[in-house]
Write a structure and sequence with these properties.
three-stranded antiparallel sheet; mainly alpha; Four Helix Bundle (Hemerythrin (Met), subunit A); 9 helices; single chain
């Protein structure tokens, strides 16, 4: 093999991945809200690592859409603009509509039982942030039930941004959230298990629309 055709030595990225996991977890737990500043030196000190892995981790999180880097502001947790919300909602809707159709047409009873189990977990959510995690896990289960690998990959590409969107939603208000969301998801499960495509698509669309309306101020959050 020529010198030009040789592969470059692999770089170990384990530490950067671990740092990214910990920062991501801090964002999802509410320790860093949208708009919060992430200072490289402070993060490195808190995790007892050098600044190099933190820098790599931040680049990874930026590709996921969780953080935004700008020379005049440094690194901040992403604040979703109205345009961001509209784009994310339209893409999520397109992917989720296909997932619902596929899950109903091709998902086994066991697949839909897994979706139901994810919905049941919502009843035990400790707080709003925990419920957001359960919400994401529910939609993970719907995409898994679809049995469509490329669709699952597409969902994975926006999954962290959807999580951030739901954090933005509870940042506006948590009034009625813990009581309303589990009931909404029980309805979604019932439609999936009855294999009623039209009703399921309508309920999933209403579920998404309510969250968008809360974020945009178009409706009362309760």
């Amino acid at each position: 093999m020529s010198e030009q055709g040789r592969l470059a030595p692999a770089r170990r990225r384990g530490l950067a991945d671990e740092v990214a996991d910990r920062i991501r977890e801090a964002i999802f737990s509410g320790a860093y809200a949208p708009g919060a500043q992430l200072r490289e030196v402070e993060l490195a000190g808190a995790m007892d690592v050098s600044r190099g892995p933190v820098r790599e981790a931040v680049r990874l999180l930026e590709r996921e859409g969780l953080v935004h880097c700008a020379w005049h502001r440094g690194t901040t947790v992403t604040t979703l603009s109205p345009e961001d919300v509209a784009e994310l909602d339209s893409l999520r809707g397109a992917l989720e509509d296909l997932a619902v159709r596929q899950a109903i047409a091709r998902g086994s009873d066991e697949d839909l039982a897994s979706v139901a189990k994810a919905a049941d977990m919502m009843e035990r959510a400790r707080d709003a942030h925990d419920l957001v995690r359960c919400d994401i896990a529910f939609h993970d289960a719907v995409f898994a039930a679809a049995g469509h690998r490329r669709l699952a990959d597409a969902w994975e590409g926006i999954r962290c941004q959807v999580h951030l969107f739901l954090l933005t939603r509870i940042g506006h208000s948590t009034e009625g959230y813990l009581s309303r969301i589990p009931a909404e998801h029980r309805e979604l499960v019932a439609a999936l298990r009855s294999r009623d495509t039209d009703t399921a698509l309508e309920l999933f669309a209403a579920h998404r629309r309510h969250a968008v309306d809360v974020v945009t101020g178009a409706t009362d959050p309760g």
